[in-house]
Amino acid sequence: MQINLIKEICEFFKNIPYKDETIVDFDYKLDNILFKNGEDEIFAIVDFEYSHKTIPQLDVIKSARFFARTEDETKLDFDMFNKFINAYLNINSLPINKHNIYCMLMFLVIRRLTYALQYYYYHTKNEIEYKNLAEKDLELVKFIYNNKNKFYL
């Protein structure tokens, strides 16, 4: 699984079908959204420290992952994930397909997994928080891999 997965992700980004880059938030989650007087209407989006230039599809998928993660963060609620993606696509036209969503989501989870391992082994003198994060992300990679047929548009 591991080598083929890495090859698949590398091949996707080598031949990425999206060329339009833009400034993205890259940390769009409930913690960073302020609502008007307890209503559903968004008042403001805050915390732009991770903003950078990339393809918008990556930001949308990262956001969908935040909204669809389970409490223990080792699985995704695919129904919620797909609803987020489809709700976004109903408002904004964005070229994307199931395979691309899968590759970009795996890239994002593996990327965070490698950061957690880097901090665990080299920066924090084995701080347990990063070890736990790495273990959760490894479980999430396995879960997504074993359920990749559950993405729909």
Using brief descriptors, characterize the structure shown.
mainly alpha; two-stranded antiparallel sheet
Summarize this structure briefly.
The chain is mainly α and 153 residues long. It has five helices and four strands.
**Could you say which overall geometry the principal axes of the C-alpha atoms support?**
globular
Helix content: 55-70%
Helix tally?
5
Span from first to last CA? 25 Å
Strand order, largest beta sheet: 1-4
Largest sheet: 2 strands, antiparallel
Beta-strand portion reads: 5-15%
Beta-strand segment tally: 4
Q: How do the SSEs run, as a string of H and E?
A: HEEEEHHHH
Parts with pLDDT < 50 across at least 5 consecutive residues: none
| Gyration radius from CA atoms, angstroms | 16 Å
Mean pLDDT: 86
By secondary-structure content and strand pairing, the structural class works out as mainly alpha
Description:
The longest helix has 26 residues, at 98-123. By secondary structure, this protein is mostly helical. The model has no long low-confidence stretch (mean pLDDT 86). The strands form two sheets. It has a two-stranded antiparallel ribbon with strand order 1-4. It has a two-stranded antiparallel ribbon with strand order 2-3. It has helices at 2-14, 56-68, 78-91, 98-123, 128-146; strands at residues 22-24, 33-35, 42-45, 52-54. A hairpin with a 6-residue loop joins β2 and β3 (42-45). The chain has five helices and four strands. The two termini are 25 Å apart. 56% of the residues lie in helices and 8% in strands.
